[in-house]
Write a structure and sequence with these properties.
Mean pLDDT: 89
Strand order of the largest sheet: 1-2
Largest sheet: 2 strands, antiparallel
Radius of gyration: 19 Å
Length: about 170
């Protein structure tokens, strides 16, 4: 009696598993270290305008420093971050941080360039966490969403699962 294939399939094609990728080199899975480094570089790009706005809105009167952060800053940073991720991945399959560290975002199903809706979901999901009423825990929850990419055999975190993507090495 023939056995049925228990592996997940999409459109008649078997979805990739960790053992389908080389251990190192081009087309290997993006390791957590380089992914973390790329994310840190990309977050620094978003943080620079935020820090500039904070510096411009900080006042010192009579020796007392007053930090008057505009209410629009966090939503603006979230929109900027989501756009940065979306445009970079939709256009070049990678953010500048991923480019510098030799990583690329591909579709999970076939390894091709992500579609615009996939890139949008992948970029929007983590940044939308900042819209939740979590107060001081917003940034921790945001970073927590990104940290989900370090576990699992394919290192597919919440953003990758939402966008139907996977991060691979290019070198």
């Amino acid at each position: 009696m023939p056995q049925s294939d228990p592996e997940p399939v999409e459109g008649g094609r078997r979805l990739p598993k960790a053992e389908d990728f080389p251990a190192t080199g081009p087309y290997s899975l993006g390791a957590p270290g380089p992914r973390f480094g790329a994310r840190a570089l990309d977050l620094a790009v978003i943080a620079i305008p935020v820090v500039v706005v904070i510096a411009l809105t900080t006042t010192t009167v009579g020796g007392k420093t007053s930090l008057d952060v505009p209410r629009w800053l966090l939503p603006a940073a979230a929109v900027l971050g989501a756009l940065y991720e979306f445009v970079s991945v939709a256009w070049r399959s990678r953010t500048p941080g991923k480019w510098l560290l030799g990583l690329k975002v591909v579709r999970y199903t076939d390894g091709q360039k992500p579609s615009a809706p996939q890139a949008l979901l992948r970029g929007l999901v983590p940044w939308s966490v900042l819209a939740l009423p979590l107060g001081p825990f917003s940034v921790a929850a945001f970073l927590g969403v990104y940290s989900t990419g370090v576990s699992g055999s394919l290192h597919r975190g919440i953003p990758d699962q939402a966008g139907g993507t996977l991060v691979i090495s290019t070198r």
